[in-house]
Write a structure and sequence with these properties.
It is built from 13 helices and 13 strands.
């Protein structure tokens, strides 16, 4: 059965997925028996297009890269729909939600996710907001409606974390999860170890595109906190909120602190952790001085890593990209193929 896809958000991540789908279309059919048509694309800035027979994805991608709005690109189909209308009225059976994350409210992505599941459509999202703030509700909506709800890209982009827990580590008890969940802060701390001050390292991260002009979500630990909540609630059965997480960022770590740690045989990392303490699940984000023998100590630059402490395998560490156009686009592809297999 051909999957009808609707892109809600066609920015960096949506375009990354589009590039992957175009490049691997024949391979996906040959190896995975997966065929698709993109029937709707909606983006607040880039416009919208809906065509039940399928949009020319290559032409749509070329148009937005050239700065042309989808409404004005001469593509066959109906234009001018907003996101909610697109989700409700298109003939998509799988909604791909990749809009901007507002970690304080989760909107507008939470509304997009609710409408998709209430409209009888499977859902895959890379958006941390809905999963961090409203996972129990969305998971129940999916279950009640017999739908699939996937969110691999919300923690470490395309590096497998959610699928690792749910599938590869199935049968293991996960006692704790601990790691580097924000590439921007890891890059800053790595550069400080090379001699840069915090301010200079942050400026360099911004120039390279690792940090936003307003970097609070990264350097104050909010991004890592959202991922800690997602791991706690989706993989360890908790119901944590932002109020339950002790969260401290890296803004108070000085060059002197970094140098002193190195002299002692340690290295500063911003660590997000989730652990079982009795009958409770506890989440935390804070800078930690970790020994160089710790697998996480060797993870430098804008890279993420997590160590899962399991009862049957002991510690299992996975390391990889925590962001990126193709990397996060790939996370959506893994969710699409997972849904295809379950169907």
């Amino acid at each position: 059965m051909t999957a009808n896809l609707a892109f809600i958000g066609f920015g960096v991540v949506g375009q990354g997925l589009a590039e992957i789908l175009l490049e691997k279309e024949k391979e996906l059919e040959a190896k995975n028996d997966f065929t698709f048509r993109v029937v709707a694309i909606c983006d607040t800035l880039k416009g919208s297009i809906n065509n039940p027979e399928g949009i020319d994805l290559k032409a749509a991608l070329e148009a937005v890269k050239a700065g042309t709005k989808l409404d004005e690109a001469g593509l066959a189909g109906e234009t001018g729909w907003d996101a909610i209308t697109t989700i409700r009225e298109s003939n998509a059976d799988l909604v791909l939600e990749a809009t901007y994350t507002d970690i304080k409210t989760g909107e507008p992505a939470v509304s997009h996710c609710r409408v998709a599941l209430k409209s009888g459509k499977d859902l895959a999202t890379t958006n941390k907001g809905p999963v961090a703030l409203h996972f129990p509700e969305l998971d129940e909506l999916a279950s009640d409606n017999g739908l699939h709800f996937r969110y691999e890209g919300t923690v470490m982009s395309g590096t497998p974390v959610i699928n690792l827990c749910a599938e590869t580590l199935a049968g293991c008890e996960i006692k704790s999860i601990r790691g580097i969940l924000n590439g921007t802060t890891n890059y800053i701390l790595s550069e400080m170890e090379s001699g840069l001050s915090y301010d200079d390292a942050l400026k360099q991260a911004q120039e390279l595109g690792y940090a936003e002009a307003g970097p609070d979500a990264d350097v104050l630990g909010w991004d890592a906190m959202a991922k800690v909540i997602i791991l706690a609630n989706t993989q360890m059965g908790a119901d944590l909120t932002t109020e339950d997480i002790d969260c401290t960022g890296i803004t108070e770590i000085s060059l002197e602190d970094v140098n002193a740690a190195v002299a002692e045989g340690f290295r500063w990392k911003l660590i997000g952790s989730v652990s079982r303490e009795g009958d409770k699940v506890v989440g935390r984000v804070a800078p930690e001085k970790i020994a160089l023998s710790d697998p996480l100590a060797a993870v430098m630059g804008p890279t993420n890593a997590l160590t899962f402490d399991t009862d049957l395998l002991g510690p299992v560490t996975v390391q990889g990209a925590g962001a990126g156009r193709l990397e996060t686009g790939f996370s959506l592809l893994t969710d699409i193929l997972a849904i295809h297999r379950m169907r």
